[in-house]
Amino acid sequence: MEQIRIGVIGCGNISDIYLTNLQKLESLVVVAVSDLNHDKAIEKAEKYEIPHVLSVDELLENEAIDLVLNLTIPAAHAEVSLRALEAGKHVYSEKPLAITLADGEKVLAKAKEKNLLVGVAPDTFLGGGLQTCRELIKNGAIGEPVAATAFMMGHGPESWHPDPEFFYRAGAGPMFDMGPYYLTALIHLIGPIRRLTGSARITSSERTITSEPKYGQKIKVETPTHVAGILDFENGAIGTMITSFDVWGSKTPFLEIYGTNGSLSVPDPNTFGGPVLLRKPGEMDWTEVAFTHGSLENSRGIGVIDMVDALCSGREPRASGELAYHVLEVMHGIHDSSVKGEHYKMNSTCKQPEALPSEILS
Ligand SMILES: NC(=O)c1ccc[n+]([C@@H]2O[C@H](COP(=O)([O-])OP(=O)(O)OC[C@H]3O[C@@H](n4cnc5c(N)ncnc54)[C@H](O)[C@@H]3O)[C@@H](O)[C@H]2O)c1
Question: Where do the Gfo/Idh/MocA-like oxidoreductase N-terminal domain residues begin and end (predicted)?
C-alpha cells in the first residue's frame, strides 16, 4: 500500500501530540507543515524532522500532498478545510467542523462534490476506555440505555493556555470547545439525537488571563460560559449535559450511562483510557472492568490513522464529517433553544460510528 502524504496546517499547542503520534507509521507520512506564523512551522519541522515548511498557499498547491491535517483555530477551520478540498485534498480537521452550521454544510457538500473524505476530531472515542464502554453496552451489560449524564465543570483555559482569547469568542465557549468530546462519546455509545432543550448564560463580561505569556491581560467574553442541555436521543434515552467555564469545583461525574439493568461510569471523554466502572442491580458499589481495547494513552491522531485506513479500504472514517456535523447542530441547538425558550428539533442525524474490533479479546 502506498503511503498517504499529509500536510499539516496550524502548528500551535495541539500539533505536538499529533506530530508525535503520526511519526513512524507505515500507512502515512507527514511531508510538510505550515502556519500563518512561519516561525512556529519551522520549529515543528525541526523538532519532528518534517522535510518541508511551506506557506498555506504552497501547501495547498502541492500535488504531492493527499490529505490536509487542519490544526488551526476554530474560526479558521471551515475556510482552511474548504480550500484544501477545493485543491483536491482529503481533510482531517480539529474540532469543531466549523463555527456555523452553514459553513459545516459547505464543507460536507464540497467533499461530496469532489469525492473526498472529511474527518473531524475528537478521536478520543476510539481509545480503549470508550471502546470498552461500547463493547459493554453492545453485550447488554447495562440492558437498554435509559438515560445519561455528562458534565464538563471547570473554570476556563485562561489559567493554562498561552493564547486563550479564542475560547471566549463566538463559536467557542465551553460547549463548542469541550462539548464535542462529550457529545461524540454519547452518540458513539447511545446513538444520534432527535430533539433537545438548553439554557445558557454569560457570567462575567471580562476574564483575566493568568497563564504566561499574557498574564494579567483581559479577555472580552462574547459567548455563554455556562451551558446546560437536555438531549432526547433517537432511541428514547434522555441525556442531561452541562459544560461550564464558571465552576471552581464539582464532584459531578464526567459521563454516566444508566440502563435498564445497570449503570456504566464512563471515563473522561477528553482522554483515551479509563477507568471503566460498572454497577449492577443490587450491588452496593462499582466494579472496575478490564479493557477490551488498547490505545489507552494520549492517542490523538488515531482518527487520522483510521481515516487513512478508510481511504485505503473505501469506507467512511469513524470520526466522520457527518458525525461532526450532527454534533455541531446539537451544540447550536442548545444555544438556540436557550435564546428562543423552546425545544430544538434536530434536522440532521448520523450513523453511530462502527465499534473498533476488540483486539484484546480476540
Ligand atoms: N490545545 C489543546 O489542548 C487542544 C486540545 C484538543 C483540541 N484542540 C483544538 O485544536 C485546535 C488548535 O488549538 P491549539 O490549542 O493548537 O491553538 P493554537 O492557537 O495554539 O494554534 C493554532 C495555530 O494555527 C495557526 N493558524 C490560525 N489560523 C490559521 C490559518 N488560517 N492558516 C494557517 N495557520 C493558522 C496559528 O498561527 C496557530 O499557530 C483548535 O480547534 C482546538 O479546539 C486543542
Answer: 4-120
Amino acid 321 reads G
Contact 158, 210 (CB under 8 A): yes
Class of domain 125-294+326-345: alpha beta
Separation between Cα atoms, residue 320 and residue 187, nearest integer Å: 12
Residue 177 Cα: closest atom of ligand 1 = 43
**Ligand 1 first shell, C-beta below 6 A:** 9-14, 35-37, 40, 56, 71-74, 76, 80, 94-95, 163, 177
CA of 300 to the centre of ligand 1 (A): 14
Ligand 1 centroid, distance to 76 Cα (angstroms): 9
Angle, to 10 degrees, between the axis of helix 101-114 and the axis of helix 74-86?
20
Ligand 1: atom nearest CA of 40 is 39
Each residue's pLDDT expressed in tens, for the chain with a length of 362 residues? 579 999 999 999 999 999 999 998 999 999 999 999 999 999 999 999 999 999 999 999 999 999 999 999 988 999 999 999 999 999 999 999 999 999 999 999 999 999 999 999 999 999 999 999 999 999 999 999 999 999 999 999 999 999 899 899 988 899 999 999 999 999 999 999 999 999 999 999 999 999 999 999 999 999 999 999 999 999 999 999 999 999 999 999 999 999 999 999 999 999 999 999 999 999 999 999 999 999 999 999 999 999 999 999 999 999 999 999 999 999 999 999 999 999 999 999 999 999 998 765 43
Topology annotation, domain 4-120: Rossmann fold (3.40.50)
Q: Identify which of 316, 296, 269 has the alpha carbon closest to the alpha carbon of residue 359.
A: 296
39, exposed or middle or buried, with CB in 10 Å at 0-12, 13-18, 19+?
Answer: exposed
Cα atoms in the Cβ-side hemisphere of radius 13 Å centred on 62:
22
Q: Is 4-120's fold the same as 125-294+326-345's? A: no
Question: How is the chain split into domains, by residue range?
Answer: 4-120, 125-294+326-345
